Amino acid sequence: MNVRTTLTNAIDQMGNLLLSPPYGGFGYYHNYGPRTRRAVAFTFDDGPSKPSTELLLDTLGELGVKATFFCVGLSVQWHPDVVQRAFTEGHVIGNHSMMHSRKAGLMLSGGDHIDAATHAITQVIGRRPRLYRPPWGWLTPWEGRRLQQRGYAVIGWDIYPDDWKVPEVPAEQLVAQIKPLVKPGSIILMHDSVSNQIRWNKTETARAVRSLVPWLRDEGYEIVTIPELLGLPAYGE
Ligand SMILES: [Zn+2]
Question: Which tens digits make up the pLDDT trace of 78-96?
Answer without folding.
Answer: 999 999 999 999 999 999 9
